[in-house]
Amino acid sequence: PPSAVANLRPGAEQKVVFITARVHPGETPSSFVCQGIIDFLVSQHPIAKVLRDHVVFKIAPMLNPDGVYLGNYRCSLMGFDLNRHWANPSPWAHPTLHGVKQLIIEMYNNPKINLEFYIDIHAHSTMMNGFMYGNIFEDEERFQRQAVFPKLLCQNAEDFSYSSTSFNRDAVKAGTGRRFLGGLLNDTSYCYTLEVSFYSYILGGPTSAVPYTEEAYMKLGRNVARTFLDYYRLNSLVERPLAPTPQTR
Q: How would you classify the pairing of strands 113-124 and 190-197?
C-alpha cells in the first residue's frame, strides 16, 4: 500500500539509522555483527521488507580499512586511534572519519532528514555478552528514552545484557563517535557504542558460558536490525506467517 512507504516518498521526512563498525581493526567480531545487520536488511524476510519501507539505514562497515589491511590491532596506517579523533578529524590524517562526519552533519542540517540513531560497533576483550554504552544527559526524560532501545534489544537477543549496558561521560571517551555525536546531535537522536565479547556469552547461571561463533555474532546483528521493528512499532505491518530467520552453520 502507498502508505507503507510514506517515509520514502519524495519530500517526506526520512528516519535515518546510521551504523558504523571496525574503527579498531583488531575487533573482528564487530565486522560479523555488522554483516548480520546488512544481510538481514537486504533479505526477503518480511521484517526486513517493512524496515526498508520505513527507515533509511546508512552503514559504513569498515572505518579503518588501512589498519585492517595492515593487521594493526587498534591504530590506522598513520598510528592514530581513530576513535579518539571525532571532534576534529583531518581529511588527510583521518579521511574515513572526516567523510562520515561530514555526511552525518549534512543529514543533521537537512530539515527533511531525522537522524534518529547512531550505533558504532566494537568488540570487548574482557567482558562477556553483547552490551551498549550510552551517554549521560541532565534531562531525565531524555535519559530514560535512551534506555528504550537496549531494553528492547535485550528482549530479542539472548546474548545481549542490559545489566552490562552503561551510560557514562568518561573524559577518556570524549573523542569517540558515541560521545562526540551525542553532544552534536539534538535530543531526538540516540548515540550508542554496541560492544560484543571476543569470546563468549552467558545464558542462565555463571557457569554456562557459550563460546561465540561467527554465526552467533551475525545473529546478534540480525537481532539488532529486528529491534527497530519493535522500536518504531511496525509489528502490525509484517506479513504473517513470519518466515523463520535462516540458520546457517
A: parallel
Cα gap 149→3, rounded to integer Å: 25
The pLDDT score that the predictor gives to residue 124 is 97
The Cα–Cα gap between 116 and 83 comes to 21
Cα 96 to Cα 128: distance, rounded to the nearest angstrom: 29
Distances (CA, A) of 136 to 22, 83, 139, 170: 24, 19, 9, 10
pLDDT value, residue 152: 96
Number of neighbours of residue 216 by Cβ within 10 angstroms = 20
Q: C-alpha grid cell for residue 120?
A: 558504532
Tell me if residue 195 is catalytic.
yes
Q: Identity (one letter) of the amino acid at 104?
A: I
Domains of the chain and any CATH numbers: 14-235 (3.40.630.10)
| Residues forming a β-bridge with 60 | 20
Please pick, among 195, 214, 215, 239, the residue that the annotation labels catalytic.
195
Beta bridge partners of 124: 197
**What is the rounded radius of gyration, in angstroms, for the C-alpha atoms of the chain?**
18
The segments of the chain whose pLDDT lies below 50 read 1-4
The DSSP symbol for 160 reads B
Residue that the C-alpha cell 543529514 belongs to: 107
Please choose, from the candidates 40, 20, 16, the residue with its C-alpha nearest in 3D space to the C-alpha of residue 224: 40
Tally of CB atoms within 10 A around 113: 15
